[in-house]
Every structure is written in structure tokens, then in C-alpha cells.
Amino acid sequence: MTVRLPRGRGALKATGMALLLVPLGFLGLFMVGEVAGGDVSGLSHAVQALPLVLVAVAAWRWPLQAGAMMVLIGLGIVVVYAILASSRFGLGTILIVESILAVPIVSGAMFMLAGRPERDVGGSRSA
Q1: Do 68 and 112 form a contact (C-beta atoms < 8 A)?
Q2: Residue 125 phi, psi (nearest 5)
Q3: Rounded to whole angstroms, how far apart are CA atoms 31 and 52?
Q4: CA distance 86 to 43
Q5: In 3D, which of 75, 96, 69, 73 has the Cα closest to residue 85?
Q6: What pLDDT, on the 0 to 100 scale, is given for residue 8?
Q7: Exposed end of the chain (fewer CB within 10 Å): N or C?
């Protein structure tokens, strides 16, 4: 008997990719708003989005490895932000921002599930 993912690997990859639209959308929104307001430094948000886009493209091709990379990067970002923001912002603000920053962790986990090898459970009998 072979263990199969309930919704299919393609659906997990598509959902993982769709989740990444949340942080990318925020970065794009900030970029457009700042540039439209005359602040050219808003283009730095495109630089911030580039690694996420590159890892997402890699995750479509190599879901297990790039998904693991996405989880590790996401965990690092969440921990560093919590440490740096704890002296500046209240807990509510930190938790709201952390919920956006944690999206790559969930997305990476979905890619990892999509990329895991199928296992043979029990005695499979070939006829």
C-alpha cells in the first residue's frame, strides 16, 4: 500500500505558492505607495521580495529542498524581528507583523509535504 497525500502534490504546491502572495503583496503595496509618494527608496522593497520569489520558483521545481530552505529562512526572519521589535513596539503590533512574516514557514511546509517521497507502508504485494 502506498501513502498518498489527500489533496495531491500539485494542489499543495499551488496553495504554497498562493500563500506567498500575502507577503509579496504587502511588499508590493509598500513599494508602490512609497514610490508614488516620491520616495525612490521604496524600490528597496523589490530587493526584499527578490529572495522570496527566487526560493518560490526553486520550490516549484525542487519542493522538498527549497521548502526546507523557505522554512529555515522564515524562522530566522521571525526570530530576528521579534528580538529587534520587542523594545520598539507593543505585543499586538509584533504579533500582527509576525503573522505576515510567518507565511513563508507555512508555505515552505506545504512545499515540503508536496516534495516528500511516497512511502510503501506495510507489505506491498506485487502480483
Answers
A1: yes
A2: -110, 125
A3: 15
A4: 27
A5: 96
A6: 78
A7: C
